[in-house]
Amino acid sequence: MELKIMICLLFISLCLIHPSASAPALNYADALEKSILFFEGQRSGKLPANQRLTWRGHSGLSDGSTYHVDLVGGYYDAGDNVKFGLPMAFTTTMLAWSVIEFGNRMAGQINYARDAVRWGTDYLLKAATAAPDTLYVQVADPNQDHHCWERPEDMDTPRNVYKVTSQNPGSDVASETAAALAAASIVFRRTDPAYSAKLLQTAMKVFDFANRYRGKYSDSLSSVVCPFYCSYSGYDDELLWGASWLYLASRNASYLSYVSSNGYTLGAGDDTYSFSWDDKRPGTKVLLSQGFLRNKIQQLELYKVHSDNYICSLVPGANGFQAQYTPGGLLYKEGDSNLQYVTSATFLLLTYATYLNSDGGSVSCGASKITAPQLISLAKKQVDYILGQNPAKMSYMVGFGERYPLHVHHRGSSIPSVHAHPSHVSCNDGFQYLYSGSPNPNVLVGAVLGGPDGNDGFSDDRNNYQQTEPATYINAPMVGALAFFSGTQKMT
Questions:
Q1: What CATH number has the domain bearing residue 328?
Q2: Residue in 266, 368, 251 with CA at minimum distance from that of residue 308
Q3: Residue 9's pLDDT band (cuts 50, 70, 90)
Q4: What pLDDT does 237 receive?
Q5: Which segments cross the bilayer (predicted)?
Q6: Pairing state of beta strands 161-165 and 134-139?
Q7: Which DSSP string do the residues of 377-412 spell out, in sequence order?
Q8: Is residue 369 classed as helix, strand or coil in its secondary structure?
Q9: What is the full DSSP assignment across 4-59?
Q10: Between residues 12 and 408, which one has the greater pLDDT?
Q11: Where are the alpha helices (DSSP H) in 188-300?
Q12: Would you state the pLDDT for residue 6?
């Protein structure tokens, strides 16, 4: 049986994981630059003088004002004009983690990457410190926003503000916010110590709030967060995730004790196989595994075991393999925005490979062992697929390669810029652009879209939001993955 597994793994490494010899070399450094540039297209608020995506303009400058709170800034999550707190915080955490793990490979892009993190944390700090035992978690009613197709610069739908409190808790979104602030505090520890300290102090307060007043934010705010960003996995995973980041950022033993004492209660023993804005369990296990692999913290050894289980689920032919791949070799989770699962899994593959290399370890999949180079090869296959080495010969990153989608489901990108068309485009007038067969007039450079279906099929149709809509949480893990290969490319 073990021989069969080894033969199968060898076949995979030769046929599935490694790109064909005829495939052209990909410019990962260019893709990295574009993947970070995308976040400038998602900015809300007053744009800075060094804004590079110049077709965008200022927007949401009065967000929060009718509620006597400053909520200007942050990111629009995808192709709409809503600021959703849960995916925004996860995006910020993953951008920060990308810089932490692979910032040394980003070369000239490192400052832009930090800027992308800071645009998120500046907003999250406002949302977390406006009032005691309160976290502002959303701006705009998505039900009304989604009835319009208009540029963020033209928004005239209600900019309602939503919050979680001690009476209406949201442990999931609060813990994710704490994770984002804590992770970012590591990013800025050397370049801006005062800002780093502020981030960490705020993260501690927000996590305490999340832990003391427990509940799902989608129970408190169901009408405006569901079905868009319901907390399907609950809040246990975010509590463990937030505590883990606080331990890494602060090295305060109380957070390690929290993780050790509450881990299994909060889902550490659950081997789930999808890492996303909703479910943090696989990411938490990989994150904590470094404490065992690098620092030999014995109480974290179980996270290495569960990380192995997660990795084994992704590797075709391995004992414990559970994932699905398209005929072209793309990891496939589900039809709507599948690439979000691909980029997050790819990031974990590379991060875990890095941890293993530092320890000289491997992944245990039953009787077989999977090495760090094998994880890197599988991750490379996913990145290369996204960048155009796929059956359709199409890059799913806008603006990268010779062929990429032109009809992106994104309001600001699909309507002529305020600089080219200064007059107001109203809610209903914008729909002519949604249904137009013409390419988007503004290129949302670097946006990774939802991607192809389970048979590698893709329809470049602006109304096909399942495949053509970008999202910040698709791009954020991709930044780290591209930094890894960009650095590798430069060193070879």
A1: 1.50.10.10
A2: 368
A3: very low
A4: 95
A5: none
A6: antiparallel
A7: HHHHHHHHHHTT-STT---SBTTSSS---SS-S-HH
A8: strand
A9: HHHHHHHHHIIIIISPPTTSPPP-HHHHHHHHHHHHHHTB-BSPPTT-S-TT---B
A10: 408
A11: 193-212, 217-220, 222-225, 236-250, 253-262, 281-293
A12: 43
- The residue type of 80 is D
Task: Give the H/E segment covering residue 304.
Answer: helix 301-314
Angstrom distance (rounded) from CA 245 to CA 256: 10
CB 164 within 8 A of CB 170: yes
In this structure, what token pair is assigned to residue 74? 């942050």
Asked if residue 5 belongs to a domain, the reply is: no
Q: Which of 271, 275, 307 is nearest to 289 (CA)?
A: 307
Q: Which helix (H) or strand (E) holds 302?
A: helix 301-314
In sequence order, what are the beta bridge partners of 324? 332
Say which DSSP state 154 is in: G
Paired tokens of 297: 């913290």
Where do we find the tokens 């992944």?
Answer: 363
The answer, yes or no, to whether residue 265 has pLDDT greater than 80, is: no
- Is 7 part of any domain? no
Share of the chain above pLDDT 70, in %: 94
Phi, psi of 331 (to 5 degrees): -60, 130
For the four alpha carbons of 226, 229, 235 and 239, in that order, the dihedral sign comes to negative
Average pLDDT, stretch 153-178?
96
| Res. 487 pLDDT band, cuts 50 70 90 | confident
Closest among 215, 221, 312, 233 to 270, alpha carbons compared: 233
Considering the domain boundaries, does residue 310 fall inside one?
yes
pLDDT at 453 over 80: yes
The pLDDT value given to residue 358:
83
Q: How confident is the model at residue 13 (pLDDT cuts 50, 70, 90)?
A: very low
Instruction: Give catalytic residues, as residue numbers.
Output: 409, 460, 469
Give 489 or 344, the one with higher predicted confidence. 344
| Whole-model pTM over 0.70 | yes
Contact predicate 366/340, CB 8 Å: no
Torsion sign, CA atoms 71, 340, 375, 5: positive
| Tokens (6 digits) for 200 | 């960490």
Given a contact cutoff of 8 angstroms between Cβ atoms, the answer to whether 59 and 75 are in contact is no
| 119 neighbors 180 (Cβ within 8 angstroms) | no
Please state, in angstroms and rounded to a whole number, the distance separating the CA atoms of residues 252 and 109: 31
Burial of 416 (0-12, 13-18, 19+ CB in 10 A): middle
Side chain identity, residue 328: G
**Tens-place pLDDT, residues 306-319:** 999 999 999 999 99
341 near 349, Cβ under 8 Å? no
Cα 11 to Cα 215: distance, rounded to the nearest angstrom: 47
Where in the sequence is the domain holding 480, given as residue range(s)?
Answer: 13-491
Number of structural domains found in the chain? 1
113 lies in some domain: yes
